[in-house]
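User: Hey, quick favor. My workstation is busy. Could you predict this chain's structure for me?
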Amino acid sequence: MAKLKELDSLIDFSRATIQLDIVLALRDSEEGLSSEALASRLRQRRKAVLDALRKLEHKGLVERDEDGLYHLTELGLRFLNELENLMNKNAAYKGSRDVLSVKPSIKEFVLRLMLNNIIYEIIMIVGSSRKHMISAKKLSRILGLSVSRIDNYIEYLNSTLKTTVIRKVRIKKLFGKKEYYKLTRYGEKVYRSLLSHPRHRKFLKRLTSRLLGAHHVSLILKKLTIINSLALFAIILFHILTPNIYELIKITAALALIIINILLYFR
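Assistant: No problem, here it is.
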């Protein structure tokens, strides 16, 4: 997983599949390819391809020669080699190669990992929320995905396991009904099993998640913001009882921090 994150820092797999497509296309071309040829081969708009190429050049993965053709750099070739090594070490794909004698594509491997990682995040966020339940809009905001797309991921999860792990419920609130995602009893078992996964064996991470009842970093930061604001408010009340010029400065600074915390909470 650490190696995958390192590779993901070069190409954001969740947002930049076109960059991965370009790198793979250049690997298969010894003479190099122009932006027009890449756009035609990938069936993408030339502007989108040029934007992706600029980002890849900035990261040092590709370079352009005097004839305007793009090639992989040494870093680009090393990136692909490490990605292939990671794929070959994956136990699931080792089994498929033994049976089918067909090597899966790098893109298929990356997309499968992306899918698994998003589903993992969904389960952990819903599971660490109060009553194992979170509003659809809030989860959408945290993940940066539309509600309909999250629905598709959950549908895939439930159909793959042939049981309901997460269900969508509508709860009546003051200003109408709101949609929530909630873990089922089986989903709670899945969540607890994931907590014992090596990804959660770091003491500080496990302790923070347990104390604050949150898994995702944005949820943890928001809860810390609330705790911090309450603590500052208590300090202000204490110092109001014994006012002087120095205490006034402290109160002003504390108020400024509360305002910053509020802005961070609602950003």
